[in-house]
Amino acid sequence: MIRSVDEHRSQSPERKNCLIITVSDTRDKSNDYSGQFIQNLLTANGYNIVDYTIVKDDYDGIRQLLRQAAAHRTIDVVLLSGGTGIAPKDMTYEAVRSLLNKEMPGFGELFRHLSFIEDIGSAAILSRAVAGTISSMAVFSMPGSQAAVKLAMEKIIIPELPHILNEIHKK
Fold it and tell me: What CATH number should be reported for the domain whose range is 36-45+68-171?
């Protein structure tokens, strides 16, 4: 029997533990509105927040956090915001992509498409949003602006996350 995408989405995974990482040289938890939004939206949708941290835009620091999360083995989803642009200091894309076992290119493609249509027009080409898996974790890296986080979370990640987690943990 072939199950539809809607059936896959409706199945709630047993574990739903999330790590939120904000990549920023200037934000702290009092003014990280994007990180707070991610936390509130995940909690409202039944996900558990294992940790929420802010890390400097540093290739090695980001990779270290991701490797620690993968070693933890109880984190199912990592959501990163910030550091995805093309400025010389933006290292999130390189750090995340270097550790991915499997990339989900459709995430970045769809994010840029929706950004173009709904929000920022041709400036969407500057986004290097990326997603995939590291071990058995789903990893999503999105720009740090509130509008970008809201778009990625509400239009792509929250609707598809149960399906993604079911696929990752499929036996």
Answer: 3.40.980.10
Contact call for residues 152 and 142 (beta carbons, < 8 A)? yes
Domain locations along the chain? 36-45+68-171
pLDDT digits (tens, 9 = 90+) for 76-117: 999 999 999 999 999 999 999 999 999 999 999 999 999 999
Tell which residue, 164, 171, 170, has the closest CA to residue 78: 164
Cβ neighbours of 124 (radius 10 Å): 19
Three-state SS string over 6-66 comes to HHHHHCCCCCCEEEEEEECCCCCCCCCHHHHHHHHHHHHCCCEEEEEEEECCCHHHHHHHH
CA 137 to each of CA 6, 18, 19, 98, 132: distance values in angstroms, whole numbers, following the listed order: 22, 9, 10, 15, 8
Between β-strands 48-55 and 17-23, what pairing exists: parallel, antiparallel or unpaired? parallel
pLDDT tens profile 5-31:
555 545 555 669 999 999 999 999 999
β-strand partners of 45: none
Phi, psi at 82, each rounded to 5°: 105, 155
Quote the crossing angle between the two packed helices 92-99 and 59-72, to the nearest 10°. Answer: 40
